[in-house]
Amino acid sequence: MINVGLTHTSRLTVTDANTAIALGSGDMPVLATPQMMALMENAAMLAVAPELEAGQTTVGGHIESSHLRPSKVGAEIEATATLTKVDGKKLSFNIVARMGDTVVGEGTHLRFIVDREKFLSKL
Asked: Which of 41, 43, 102, 119 is at a distance of 20 to 30 A from 49, taking alpha carbons?
């Protein structure tokens, strides 16, 4: 059983490869919003991964996030996801991204528990 309160923090050092310029989401040499959101999703995925049954994984269903502050190349970013609700196979998270003590983004994320093989067989 997966319990509310599970948490994980994922970390990233901003490089040229994950700037808005590189990802095509903007034209500035700062952390791209899609990269920040991917870090948030990663934290949520890893928060519950140890509690899943063999053959299960989670997939993202929805993410909503603000991106409040820019982060330059070389900045250390961390995203912390906390499981806030479990409704069967539907998992809800609150996520906060920080650069040191500064909040650079925050939001909510919805993931679903799926059987890996069954999910892939539908492709």
From this structure: 102
CA distance 80 to 74: 19
State how far the Cα of 95 lies from the Cα of 7, in Å rounded to an integer: 10
Contact 75, 15 (CB under 8 A): no
Mean pLDDT (whole number) for 77-98: 98
SS3 content of the chain, % helix, strand, coil (to 5): 25, 50, 25
Q: Which SS3 state, helix, strand or coil, does residue 42 take?
A: helix
Tokens of 120: 């892939």
Type of residue numbered 59: V
pTM score, whole prediction: 0.95
Predicted confidence (pLDDT) per residue in 33-46, tens digit: 999 999 999 999 99
Euclidean distance between CA atoms 35 and 39, whole angstroms: 6
Whether 97 contacts 104, CB under 8 Å: yes
Beta 7-13 vs 76-87: how paired, if at all? antiparallel
Q: Are 61 and 21 in contact (CB under 8 A)?
A: no
